[in-house]
Amino acid sequence: MLKKIPTAALRKGMFVDQFCGSWLDHPFWTRKVLIEDDKTLDTILKSPITEVVIDTGKGADWTPGELTEAAAELPKQAVEADPVPVTERQSAEVAGASTAAVSFEGELQRAKAIFRNGKEAVRSMFQEVRLGKALDGEGLLDLVEDMNRSLARNPHALLSVARIKHKDEYTYLHSVAVAALMVGLARAADQDEATVRDAGMAGLLHDLGKAVMPEAVLNKPGRLTDEEYDIMRQHPMEGYKLLQEWQDVPPAVLDVCLHHHEKMDGTGYPERLAGEDISLMSRMGAICDVYDAITSNRPYKAGWDPSESLSRMASWKGHFDLTLFQLFVRMLGIYPVGSLVRLTSGRLGVVVEQNPTALLLPRVRVFYSATLRQAVPVTLIDLAEAGQPERIIGREDPEQWPFKSLDSFWAGD
Question: Does the pTM of the predicted model rise above 0.85?
Answer without folding.
Answer: no
